[in-house]
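Thread title: Can someone regenerate the structure for this chain?

I was given the following input by a collaborator and told the matching structure tokens would be attached. They weren't. Posting the sequence so someone can regenerate them.
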Amino acid sequence: MTELQVHNFSISLDGYGCGPSQSLDEPLGIGGERLHEWIFPADGDRAPVDERFVSRGVEGVGATIMGCNMFGPVRGPWEEFGADWTGWWGDDPPFHHDVFVLTHHARPRVEMAGGTTFHFVTDGIEAALEHAREAAGGRTVRLGGGVATVQQYLRAGLLDELHLAVVPVLLGGGERLFDGLGSALADWRCVEFAPSRSVAHVRLRRAAADFDTMGA
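Best answer:
Regenerated them for you:
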């Protein structure tokens, strides 16, 4: 079965996946941009292990799922930003495949340059995963985030792999990835730990995922 995986999800040392007060001007929350400096180093020179994980995050990916707050800071009807607003990904988003956006507010699909099409799913996380798997055509489905979206899939037992980049900064507020998950993490295990000069990469897998794959 096509796997659902999270790649290159950055969290701070105190567990936050974004900073506080996310807004149009602060899409990653206050201070949240520091979580992603390892992907875009000032000198343009990524460490080899960082380069490997960045590349792995796009290779073999056929579709993406994201929460509406990853598409943009929209917590209500889309009209708040205008009917033609297409999120904060620019005219040519980096996905180049179908992206399924979880939302409570219906909206026609948005076709962008480079082959990215945003589809707005109003009937839940299972439906979004079903659509994404069909669109992926046997390739991996990537779960992009944000924090609340990853938590929903973890609680539902639908996520197979979670790659975290633990960044040595303290945000002191925002959204913590592992808050309130209870037993949802009970059968997860670390399968790779690979530190670089900038971050510590931790790759986790749901134990049952490997059995699901072998039995598919």
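The mean pLDDT is 92.
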